[in-house]
Amino acid sequence: MRAIITVVGKDKIGIIAGITSVLSKHKVNVLDISQTILQEYFTMIMLVDLSRMEISLAELKQKLEEEGSNLGVSVRIQHEEIFQSMHRI
Amino acid sequence: MKPYEIMETIKMIEQQKLDIRTITMGISLRDCCHSDGDIARRKIYDKITRCAENLVKVGEEIELEFGIPIINKRISVTPIAIVAEACEEEDYTKFAITLDKAAKAVGVNFIGGFSALVHKGYTKGDKRLIRSIPEALNVTERVCSSVNVATTQTGINMDAVREMGEIIKETARLSADRDGLGCAKLVVFANAPEDNPFMAGAYHGVGEPECAINVGISGPGTVKSALEKNKGATFDEMAEIIKKTAFKITRVGQLVAREASRRLNVPFGIVDLSLAPTPAVGDSVAHILEEMGLESCGTHGTTAALAMLNDAVKKGGIMASSHVGGLSGAFIPVSEDAGMIEAVEKGSLSLEKLEAMTCVCSVGLDMIAVPGDTPAETIAAIIADEAAIGVINSKTTAVRIIPAPGKKVGDYVEFGGLLGRAPVMAVSSFSSKDFIMRGGRIPAPVHSMKNSGISSSG
User: Is there a contact between A4 and B7 if contact means CB atoms under 8 Å apart?
Assistant: First the structure.
């Protein structure tokens, strides 16, 4: 399954490193990554592939949220299909 | 995907409270009839727990993977009056207890279908079921009951209307220690839809398949927020904004319905295109109407605002889902909508205005508390008025009314959770007794002469 990870918060050093280290540790492959400033917030959006992931999605979600709270940003992971369903006909 | 689109979806979910209100599994119990009530109940329990074994688990998986809250997982079943009829028991309360146990076993918070369809007349099973309603709702926690008393095709069964006035009073009396909570689980319908996923009126109609997944969406907050961003828009522009928002919301509903259907290996039934409010701030249909420029919901203009909202939601949603059904439209339950409660408190929203609003939206008088001393005939007359609106306009209408024991106008009933709290509203003090006591049926309207089937709903 492919998922979208979104990271939103105040910009600081180490956000990308922190998040990607959690992903690489659990064999989650990053397919695409973009970052932008939306309404004064640092916003990072990653497309990831979970097919080789070695833990459950619930565990990955928890680990990402823990890392996010260390970095002072909010992190979400969602199946890419919810975005495609809503915005593409 | 574009970043702003991704962030828009996330904002809709997190800030504007977009959610899937319910995944409801409809289960046919037609193969559970038996002349021995105990055997019938065992078959019912076994079938529900077998079919819905994974319902809650799958709902939670979808919630986790897609990051969209799914508030309720529920079950609707074949009207129990049909299933229980083969047995000779007079009291069907034991069937309700079985449904309650099955609901608890699979972990759903409501099970609908302690129901009877009597729009043209009663069978013996219908009679027994209706008489069992007060006790059944008193001794169970999760069972919901509904009775269809009218359709556009058949007219209004005024005997059933009269009896439901009494049943509602008795249901309130038995649950007096809980502010008449039993009545919050009881709906009287005209043109009841067979595939409605929303409680308390959900049941699995006789034209439905063995098992089906029906999904009810929500999202008043997203519509309000979209209108807020476009202050001063004309009606044409507002209608477009609502349609686009409804389309997006419904697409999520369609996705969840499809996934739930695939994972449970149960056919997808319908998506119910609904704006279903909750008592939470920011999740109110009344506040959408106020955002359109009305000082307080219920003032002049409210019916027009609701008509436009309801129509635009349907237009936007229709293309987003392969099958649309259920109630579809804006819901206006008083106790479950913070804005409606405020409007009643301020004196801008009355029962009469709510009745007018039910002419143009998808439901009826919903979650309305009235004084405890309201006569049964007055409640029956309120039901008759709503049924007439439904029958003449070929739409679903319903009455879910709570004559709150011991309460007067200005008092409150407190149910908590999704059922919320309701200020007690005034009813007319003039009697409808002689009208209600006539009995018989109000004939079907002239435009019913189309041979168009068992029921029509809008």
Answer: no
Dihedral-angle region of residue B450 (phi above 0 means left; psi in -120 to 50 means alpha; beta otherwise)? alpha
pTM of the entire predicted model: 0.94
At position A52, the amino acid (one-letter code) is R
Element (H or E) spanning B397, and its range?
A: strand B397-404
Average pLDDT across chain B, whole number: 95
* Two structure tokens written together for B105: 């076993």
A38 beta partners: A41
Q: First and final CA of chain A: distance in angstroms?
A: 21
Query: Across-strand partners of A44?
Result: A7, A35
Looking at per-residue confidence, does B290 or A36 come out higher? B290
Per-residue pLDDT tens over the stretch B10-41: 999 988 889 999 999 999 999 999 999 999 99
Tokens found for residue B234: 């004309």
Nearest Cβ partner for B6 among A6, A58, A81: A6
pLDDT at A12: 87
Instruction: Identify the CA nearest to B351 among candidates B336, B325, B371.
Output: B371
Whether B21 contacts B218, CB under 8 Å: yes
Grouping H, G, I as helix, E, B as strand and the rest as coil, residue B216 is strand
Provide the shortest C-alpha distance from residue B5 to chain A (in Å): 7
Q: Stretch B207-221: mean pLDDT, rounded?
A: 95
CB atoms within 10 A of CB B13: 21
| CA separation, residue A9 to residues A22, A35, A60 (Å) | 18, 12, 20
- Give the C-alpha separation, B411 to B407, whole Å: 6
CA nearest neighbour of B368 among B395, B389, B386, B393: B386
Chain A segment 43-82 residues within 8 A of B by beta carbon are 43, 45, 47, 57-58, 61, 76-82
Cβ–Cβ pairs < 8 A, chains A and B: 62
> Choosing among B4, B18, B19, B65, which should be mutated to test the A contact, i.e. which has the most A CBs within 10 A?
B65
- CB atoms B5 and A86 under 8 Å: yes
ipTM score of complex: 0.91
